[in-house]
Give the backbone structure.
Amino acid sequence: MNLPSTSLLLTDLYQLTMLQGYVEHGMEEQATFEFFVRKLPPARNFLLAAGLEQALCFLQDLRFTSEELEWVSGCGLFRPSLVDYLEQLRFTGDVHAMPEGTVCFPDEPIVRITAPLPQAQLVETRLINLLHFQTLIASKAARSVLVAPGKLLVDFGLRRTHGAEAGLLAARASYLAGFSGTSAVQAAPLFGIPIYGTMAHSYIQAHEDEAAAFERFAYANPDNVVFLIDTYDTEAGAAKVVSLATRLRQKGIPINGVRLDSGDLGDHARKVRRILDEGGLTDTTIFASGNLDESIVQQLVATHAPIDGFGIGTRMDVSADAPYLDCAYKLEAYGGKARRKRSEGKATWPGCKQVFRRYGPDGRMRGDILTLEDDPQEGEPLIQPVMRAGKRLHTPASLAALRERARTQLARLPDGLRTLEKGPDYPVQVSPALRDLAKAVDEHRL
């Protein structure tokens, strides 16, 4: 199961106005565009590529419906020749990409599209929309994964994401990056992601007695007993859980955990842990939530707060400290000739490119080389063919496999890049061959 298909009218107007010009003038030679990030946000040391699966599904299913064509025809902006072209339009191009879960850096192509110019141009908006968002969220989520090894990490952000699709894709991206699961139920049938949940304060408030609320919830959900204990008084709530435990145990119902959602989480966790342990509930876990992000989680872990897992929501799912990436989808070749944007502060490297990654004796990443795809270098080539002539070359990788790739990639990060603070810039070397091509393009020799 994947996301519902989206209308091809979910695009920017200039994609269609450019297509009308291309079609009328017969500009349908092969074009190469690359999606990349120009620079890292201030607090980021790396990015984690994500969103390729949804991008490939979009390309594979690309077609205009009769209703969409009717709108294009009647909106008063386009000529019949464009409508005729769009009616037959299918994606027939090639795609090269970094596998999802790959650590990447500025100027490195994450996805490369080679197709007839109108096709490669039209898909720009939606491809950026899909690739940008999941890469943004996976990169944010990876920071929590790095600072809380071995902890249960659950995406709690669905209710505050910027739309339903964003909530589901955030669940996918964070799971790919190493989270344990999500609270978003639809992510289970859609992506196979484990789902987690407890109760809201409203459940407790709806009852006259907090202990009665706990007991009724346990009987209703005997295999998933996690109590939210801070609605009124956190430590008093923990004591009520201990009092209830014997009665539930007699009915074969274990208390799996308690959740803290407010106040000084570290202080409450220590007091609650003591109450639970003294009451014999040494196996009952403590789960914390409430406006958390990687910095707060890092502090709680560093101070040895007895918290077994964290629900991380809003600040991750909107990437609050870095809510966008300076990314682009740019033309790098057309009609057999390399192309290059030279705008001030936004110049691009021309041609079809490859990234080679080198590793040190300890297996950690030690530098990348950005070069042309026909200029082999030392190291592991990161960009791989994934679609040819509009057809996928491989069955989709499982999310579990992508998650394992991300885990391996994060483990190979240099120590200086694993921290939340800004570390040393990772070396990405531009090859002489690529510099020579850029110079030739600038001199109009190509």
About this structure: Residues 158 and 167 are 5 Å apart (CA to CA). The chain has 16 helices and 19 strands. The radius of gyration is 26 Å.
